[in-house]
Amino acid sequence: MKTASLTQELTFDDKRPAIQILLETETSKEIRIIFKKGQVMKKHHTPFPIVVEVFKGKIDFGLETETKHLEAGNLIALAGSVPHDLTAIEDSIVRLSLSKQDKLERVKNIETA
Known about the structure:
By secondary structure, this protein is mainly β. Helices cover 4% and strands 48% of the residues.
């Protein structure tokens, strides 16, 4: 059994979203991304499917043809290779579920603005 918390030991980064792996299972990696209002993860895509949950706050989740306005409790699932970006409308905590085959370093290296 493994446990983790989305709300403990929160450290905001003034320059870019703070990204941390919370736990790793046999099939996935659970990542916490802490955004300060206005922080952006520029357009990128993943090699594997993902699930994004807004745990706290509000995020604009940009896709090729539309922007989804996500708030606490909302989830979105994407297939691999779908370009997307994230913009924090307010301070936010986001949970990202990655494939076990994906790498945390890839997420940390996404350009921010």
